Amino acid sequence: MIVKQHALRVSGALKRDIDGLRRVLIARTDGLAFHDDGPDSDHESAAAIVATVLGIAQRAAASNALGAFVQTTVKGTDGCLVVYGINAGHVLAVVTDPSVNLVLLDRLALRLVADLAGAETGTPARIG
């Protein structure tokens, strides 16, 4: 099971190792926030948006025979929202400044996502 402590370590590792991250959010796929280091007043709406992005990306991947969903990126002029599937019940989202190296972010985030998924199945996590 993913616990709050795992979410805090993922958020801390991302913010420590990648400059320019504005927000790290772990949400349930039903749109409820699990961990969010953004403004308290925005947790539930941000989680619902992330769950919606996840659903659309999963459908797009399936409809185009792309295989299992891994991640999707929404780029704007002022930054990016990158959404990663953790497991059937959770999603990781990261909001970045426009200058963030997305390749570096993907490398670290995908490792952390695998660790979170492993934590749920009982595989020892290497988060941090």
Residue-averaged pLDDT: 90
Helix-strand pattern, N to C? HEEHEEEH
Measured distance between first and last alpha carbons: 18 Å
- Main sheet, how many strands, which sense, barrel? 5 strands, antiparallel
Q: How much helical structure, as a percent, in the residues?
A: 40-55%
List the total number of helices.
3
Instruction: Give the low-pLDDT segments.
Output: none
* Strands side by side in the biggest sheet: 2-1-5-4-3
Provide the gyration radius in Å.
Answer: 14 Å
Shape, please? globular
Structural class: alpha+beta
Binned strand content? 25-35%
Q: Based on DSSP secondary structure assignment, what is the total number of beta strands?
A: 5
What would your notes on this structure say?
This protein is of the alpha+beta class and 128 residues long. The chain contains three helices and five strands, in the order αββαβββα. Strands 2-1-5-4-3 form a five-stranded antiparallel beta sheet, with helices on both faces. α1 (4-17) packs antiparallel against α3. It is globular, with a radius of gyration of 14 Å. The model has no long low-confidence stretch (mean pLDDT 90).
Summarize the SSE layout with pairings.
Blueprint: H1 4-17, E1 21-28, E2 33-36, H2 43-63, E3 71-76, E4 79-85, E5 90-96, H3 102-121
Antiparallel strand pairs: 1-2, 1-5, 3-4, 4-5
Helix pairs in contact: 1-3
Question: What would a concise description of this structure say?
Answer:
The chain is of the alpha+beta class and 128 residues long. It has 3 helices and 5 strands; from the N terminus they run H-E-E-H-E-E-E-H.
